[in-house]
Amino acid sequence: MKRLFLNYYLFIILLVVLAKFIALPLVEYASSTSFRKQFARYYQELTKGPFFMVSQYLETFPQAEWPERLQELQPQFGYPLRLVKIGSAELNEDQVRRLAAGEIVVSELYDTFWQTLDGSDDVLIMGPFPSPGVGNAVSILGWLIVLVLLGIAVLFWAMPFWRKLTRISKTATEFGEGHFDVRVNVPRHSTLGPLASTFNIMADRIEQLISAQKELMNAVSHELRSPIARLRFGIELLETSDSAEKARFLRGINRDVAEMEQLVAELLDYSRFDSKTFVLTRTTQPVYPWLRQIVDEMRDEVSAELCLECAEASQIASAQFDTALLRRAIGNLVRNAAKYGNGMVRVFLVHKQNGWRIQVDDDGPGIPLEKREQIFEAFSRLDTSRNKSTGGYGLGLAIVKQVVDLHQGVVSVGDSNLGGSCFTITIPG
User: Is 81 helix (H, G, I), strand (E, B) or coil?
Assistant: First the structure.
């Protein structure tokens, strides 16, 4: 609190000092230069009366007595009065010329004035006008009051600011100690509101990542437990079985190892796609021939009837995308549609001005509305028809979403005209 107050207070004082000794003198100099004629005319009007009265008084006496008579008048004036010859006056040529023309000459500081007396070469000088004497004291007192008021204002500003800053610091400390549910409670309109909001967004993201990591670890542990148990059981059987049964047990062990390898491969892909440093390898090519090749290759892989539909105008459209990753995503969708459908899968391509869309429809039981967001999460599987008995680890759709997100696209699921689910990938460009 003390450091914050002193830093801000000293910064304000520095600004005041700069304003006092640099900015204000510059402004005064600029204004005096620009308005010098107006200031000179103002002081000429002020001193015109005293000059007239003194000159009228002196002209009633012989010129030789003027200095003596002027000394008699001196006690009535609060500033010096002098008489000098025009040649002795410390004036430049322009000022002498204006004196000779009968003009009142004003000094640079506006504190001394000259005028010639009619019919003579004598110059009457008034000034310099004395300072009031208390100006410096009043100025110092004024600045002290200003500094005190500034200190009070800074203190009133710093106290709530410090309390909010302390609140953010305390929350950050608690968050660092593992309390991931804590958040900063600072009003949005506060100076520290954007900082608190950014911290809360970061905290939400970290909490989600940690929660996802825990869920991932639990899911991986659960998925590996079954094949590991089967491997252990198979090894025990191998030790006690005869040679005729060993081949069957070895095939079972190989299947379990392949299952674990598949799980590890999908986990590695999932982790790789989720990395912020992953970079797409984009190439520009026509979309329809590329998609048709994928569909043709997958007809031999899936047991369902697989067809591709595309409007004629969309068959010549090109786009820039990562062919390998999108092939993986579309392959996952087609396999899911064939696996959970009743024998019919349709792939539909549409190209629009702002991008293109690929739909994969099936004639299966569909996906309940409340589950349509959940299925894109890792290790998420539906009950009944979409359960573990049909195969998979719940990573296929999660990988699809990652691939589409890397392309700044959107993947969604809805109802298909075939009666099942309709997965839609929308890619901009």
Answer: strand
